[in-house]
């Protein structure tokens, strides 16, 4: 007997006949169900499919809101309405466009042109015909919906920009380019994404998650009441999840004061807390209107923005490279003190110039400052004194102290394009310019000119380090993020980038006192930043854009604006336990030197800070 | 293996080949008819998938003929254990390294040119494995649970390894196929077995619900129990499917005329919901034709099982018929809105290489069993 062929014993033909019946039963049930759906309820479903359509409607998520440190709303949203054209639902293109142009008083050819550009795309993708409809236009279209098959109005949440916004910090929105799919998020045609500043850096947090709902529409694309049609199915709806909120370290009142104080100037202002690196105000001027990007930018408008000589699109706080000018002198002073080249008592004689080789290096005061010590040199910003210190220090030692203050390194601000700046060294000189460092190079470096380049943020960081006597904090502006329920999803903490190693606290103290004199002393170059009752320390600077002789030979008023010197002022307050650093960089604004133009701006900002603090403490009491 | 093959082939050549019975021709006819209907429907549903599916059908037909009419059945029987073992290992590999699509790991890549779903092919190998187990247990009239532990363990492990992909539909299907085969074997249950069975029956759904089912799977079950609660769109799929089928009416809207299909309202219209496309375009009449073709196919499969002389052939025929039937039943019930939306392909219709080849191999094996039956009945004479 063959193995297994013993079915008579164990495996009687159990069920094989019954199984056939079971199959028959199941298949009959399916056929019955098919009959029920296709014949008995056929008309009902036919009607649904032919006269009625289910349309999926996207619900765009509102972008996350942005608040200042006191919970004041800086950037919000508003509801706007767009006019859409959905080819799939259009019955007669000509008719629709003619009706539309009559209602909106526009040439039908303008609409036809837009539609033509989208030929070849799937027919169910809506085409944007017009943005930001007025209430009047909306009501006109709604009441004439029967003549406008395939025309739809979509409510979208858009950014509501206030005119006094720090645009470079916040950034702008533009049509999303590049990958449409990104980490489980799909950008639809016409979707916006952040292009600069916080909007770009925090795009993933701000954009939220789109929702959708299904609605029943008739052949004209009109929504019909779906209550009675779907007795057994409710149409699904997924709510949009708004983007996460950003809470900044920015102080809005101070920002306003900064904007007001800096009005009609070009350049950058940074206000930060030297004890932790929190940015309190941030300004790059001139600015631009972010609204025009949101509404779609014309080529002309874009080009005029790009070609503007004042570079309005450009964030100068981290991307603008400037010679720091006399603002750099405290570093030379500190290095000289630390290396024992001078003490607080040593004096040099300033005759108005110094002769290095065959070249004469002038002091800004042609008649000379006479006998000056460190404090006197600082408050009168005597160039000759610092020329001498620079030459005595030599390039390597200047570089050592600049590095120790984290200059020439990126500060990881993580906002817009950030430059590290340039601290010239012997190696740099050899490789880039050729030759070795001359006494002239050193003299220039000592007064913050020549190849030395710093961003306004660097200057702020540098003065913070002087103010807090040795700590380089990473500057940051985002304090925390929270979701729509107020749960904190990310909390930023102050981050120590570097600790100054080569400078003693006593020498920091000496320099701080010298800087205090610059503002306090009636002869100080920064006296215009003086605040009665509140100690302010600071340093002025004016930076030559072209060689000194060129300007000196002309009367001030005839000097073309682009040849005028930059006016700088860096300051902190108070002297002990400073809590605010203000840096002003005003481009081509040299009328009367750094002190004359920039110091009063810093003064108003400092005043606003202390007033604001007083008001808040009063309120709390 | 080669010796065995050459021996079998020489035996085959010596033997005067008996013509296949008319069951083979019925299966052959259903195979051709359903494949053509499937391709026509897919052409309407999605022309991108159509092109690659033509290749799968050509390859599958070749397999069907080779298995059904050329290679001896015993060859596959001898391979049963080995094939099943290899597929089980590759399923474990899929869990570890597989290609993820749609939130589940189902594919295994071979080199850079091909990928396949072991969970499809294991449907056939499980059937062969179980049948072969009983074939080797000679002269037993009845089995106790302890004697078939290997079969039960195999069924549980295969279930688990697919369940965690996660692919609840296929895992459940495999379990059901094995149970269908076991229904044709006499098994002696002790009282304890029955208690244990009921305990398992009660606890496993509870444990599964609490620990193993994905949220979307729970949602689908809840949606079937109560279509009113329907927050996330699986109800939307069912509704659109019903609108498509229902609007087909008696005669259908005609080939390529389905509005639901061509306006992209229908989800997964080339795979799980392809029957909605068919019903929309060919109506109730078309549905009846397809149902009848499938019924004839299944009946032929059962008849072959009935005529089979030995237990391997019988259980294999039962298992393969059960596999085709269950996929058909679950898929159609799903698109008709009387079963939860689970990922289940419709044999001969749904696009997909692995599933198409599996179906062709199954149909081929049924023919091979029939051919073998004719020969053994001649031997007995």
How would you characterize the overall build of this protein?
The complex is a heterodimer of chains A (621) and B (381). Chain A is 35% helix and 20% strand. By secondary structure, chain A is of the alpha+beta class. Chain A is elongated. In chain A, strands 2, 3, 4, 5, 12, 20 and 21 form a 7-stranded mixed beta sheet that branches. Chain A has a 5-stranded antiparallel beta sheet with strand order 14-13-25-24-23, with helices on both faces. A 3-stranded antiparallel beta sheet of chain A has the order 1-10-11. With 381 residues, chain B is mainly alpha-helical. Chain B has one domain. Chain B has helices at 2-14, 22-45, 47-70, 73-97, 118-136, 149-163, 168-182, 191-212, 215-225, 234-248, 259-262, 274-307, 311-335, 353-380, and strands spanning 99-101, 104-110, 114-116, 143-144, 187-188. A 3-stranded antiparallel beta sheet of chain B has the order 1-2-3. In chain B, a hairpin with a 3-residue loop joins strand 2 and strand 3 (114-116). Chain B starts with a helix and ends with a helix.
The biggest beta sheet of chain B is recorded as: 3 strands, antiparallel
Number of self-contained structural domains of chain A: 2
For CATH, the homologous superfamily of the largest domain in chain A is named as DD-peptidase/beta-lactamase superfamily
Top-tier CATH class of the largest domain in chain A: Alpha Beta
Profile the largest sheet of chain A. 7 strands, mixed
CATH topology of the largest domain in chain A: Beta-lactamase
Which parts of chain B are unreliable, with pLDDT below 50 for 5 consecutive residues or more?
226-232
Note poorly predicted spans of chain A.
Answer: 1-12, 226-233
* H-E order of chain B: HHHHEEEHEHHEHHHHHHH
Helix content of chain B: over 70%
Q: Assembly type of the shown chains? A: heterodimer
Give me the side-by-side strand order of the main sheet of chain B.
Answer: 1-2-3
How many DSSP-defined strands of chain B? Answer: 5
Using DSSP, what is the number of strands of chain A? 25
What is the rounded Rg of chain A? 35 Å
State which percent range the strand residues of chain A make up: 15-25%
Which pair of chains has the greatest number of interface residues, and how are they split between the two chains?
A: A-B, 50 and 64 residues
Which descriptor suits the 3D outline of chain B?
globular
Give the number of helices of chain B: 14
CATH architecture of the largest domain in chain A: 3-Layer(aba) Sandwich
Given helix and strand content, the structural type of chain A is: alpha+beta
